[in-house]
Design a protein that fits this description.
By secondary structure, the chain is mainly alpha-helical. It has eleven helices and no strands.
């Protein structure tokens, strides 16, 4: 915890740490003007490549800091569930002020069960290091992933905690309305009727 706090205080001096594969992807794919989204994308993939017991403090700080704004954190959630290309497409739509049908659960495309499950385990560890306002975004991602898998009660619990940490966090309030009123269209009918 001391290491994380020290890194957070010196954030402008902290460089982003990604795997060599992710770094080469960055060089090959990053268009001008989209650097922050691509950086968040690379950090998210690096975090997903990590085992929970091998999380590096740098990766934890980078994920939380990049996800401090709702649009980036929504894109990170979509990337975990549906992959980089779809997240990139949806982030462009959301940047123009249009809602993402995938984020709203209004499409039939199913998220990756494996990526969602692994990310929830990893992100719970990340959230444990951030019990203050900065942790609200991470909790929102976990809540959205739980909702995407049909676990509405778990999603509501995480959103309650996110709102407790930061009562003004817009994404937590918006997601609360979403998860309490509907389930995603990609869920089987037998889950939706529960």
């Amino acid at each position: 915890m001391r290491v994380l706090n020290q890194m957070e205080k010196q954030l402008p001096e902290v460089g982003v740490t990604v795997t060599p594969f992710v770094a080469s992807e960055w060089v090959n794919r990053c268009p001008p003007g989209r650097e922050t989204f691509f950086l968040a994308e690379m950090v998210t993939e690096t975090l997903l490549d990590s085992e929970v017991d091998a999380l590096r403090p740098e990766s934890i700080v980078e994920f939380v800091m990049l996800g401090a704004t709702p649009l980036i954190i929504e894109t990170m959630a979509l990337q975990i569930a549906f992959g980089q290309k779809i997240a990139e497409r949806e982030s462009k739509r959301m940047a123009r002020g249009m809602p993402s049908p995938l984020f709203e659960g209004d499409e039939q495309r199913r998220p990756s069960v494996h990526r969602c499950a692994h990310a929830m385990v990893v992100l719970r560890r990340v959230a444990a290091f951030y019990p203050g306002k900065l942790g609200a975004g991470v909790l929102c991602v976990i809540a959205w992933l739980a909702w995407a898998r049909g676990r509405r009660a778990l999603a509501v619990a995480y959103l309650d905690e996110a709102r407790r940490l930061d009562p003004e966090y817009v994404l937590a309030r918006r997601l609360s309305g979403l998860v309490t009123t509907k389930l995603p269209e990609w869920l089987p009918t037998e889950i939706e009727s529960c």
